[in-house]
Each structure stands twice: as C-alpha cells, then as structure tokens.
Amino acid sequence: MDRYEEYKKLLKTMMSEYRYRHSLGVADEARKLAERYGADVEKATVAGLLHDIMKDQPPKVQLQTIEDSGIILTPVEQASQKLWHAIAGAGYVRMKLGIRDPEIFDAILYHTTGRDGMSRLEKVLYVADYTSCDRQYEGVEHMRELAKISLEDAMREGLRFTIQELSGLERTIHPNTIFAYNELVCDKLRQQRDSAV
C-alpha cells in the first residue's frame, strides 16, 4: 500500500464522509495547481490530503494536539475555534505521521489564515481549499477562473472574501490574514506602477 492509500485509510477513520471527499478534492486541485504554477506536486498532494485531518475532531482533542505539539496559541487564535484544526493538523502530521517537511507543515498550518511571505506550496493549498470540486459557495466559479490565470489574484480574492465575511460577522481576523492581503495588494500596485513606466 503506497502512502497516499495509507493516508486515505487514516482519514476515513478521522473524518466524516463529506470531509473525506473534500480532502480528496483539495488534493486533486492542489496537484493541478502545483503543476500549473511550479510547486512540488507530491508535497501539494500530501498537504491537500491532510490539510483538514483534525477538522472533525472535538475541540478538546484539537487543543490537546496543539499543546502536545508545543504550539502556543495567540489570543486571536484562542478566540477563533475555526482556526484550531489547521494548527492542530500541522502538529498532528509532524508528531503522529512523522512528516518533517517544513513546507508541508507550513502549508497545513496557514491554509486557513494565509500569511505574508507565503511559499508557492502554501498559496497552492490555500487556493485549492477554495476551489476544489466540492465547493459550492457564491463566487466559486469566479475563484476557479482566477486560479487558472493567477495564483496571486486568486489568493487576494480568497483573502478579501474571508476578511469581508469575518468582519460582517464581527469576528476576529487573524493578523496573518491582514498581512497576506496587504502584501498581495502592494505587490499588485507595484506591478501596475512598473508596467505604467
């Protein structure tokens, strides 16, 4: 049994059928985006498969995994239970699955918040999570079209969507999300200025 099959078998024991199908969809989309944008295809597939490994675990289990990983939550992270699965997931794949690759760890860790200075693999996973075949939110087709044209444009749109949604619900917004958005907007403005010269 290859490691992908081993991971799939494990995922089936840890998540709902819906979440399992989503994980397969994100892995497939991450592989395609990695091929398109020059990221490591194998790492993208593994990160896609495992990115939500802790999502269906109870909050208490997520917090225990985070603590066992030696990760200390910031006040914003403590207040945002929706973020815990990504942090716990990164810790789980390192501790329990022995995946020591820092690129895979970071891709899983930041797949919900983003951050400034994201690697190509991190961007691939972030966008794949928004554009996988199972996603059915208003605007998903626009996101899929952007992902075909520019990874950075798709990232910026995903971050804008997240910021609007969270602020509309009066929820905390992780600083990493703001940093990632600002960096991408500044990069776009710089490119526009450079092309106008």
TrEMBL record:
UniProt catalytic activity: P(1),P(4)-bis(5'-adenosyl) tetraphosphate + H2O = 2 ADP + 2 H(+)
Full protein name: bis(5'-nucleosyl)-tetraphosphatase (symmetrical)
Keyword list, A-Z: Hydrolase, Iron, Metal-binding, Nucleotide-binding
Gene3D superfamilies the UniProt entry points to: Hypothetical protein af1432 (1.10.3210.10)
Enzyme Commission number(s): 3.6.1.41
InterPro entries assigned to the protein according to its UniProt record, in alphabetical order: Diverse_Catalytic_Enzymes, HD/PDEase_dom, HD_domain, HDIG_dom, YqeK
HD domain location: 19-134
Any one Gene Ontology molecular-function term assigned to this protein's record: bis(5'-nucleosyl)-tetraphosphatase (symmetrical) activity
Signal peptide residue numbers: none
A Pfam family reported for this protein in Swiss-Prot or TrEMBL: HD
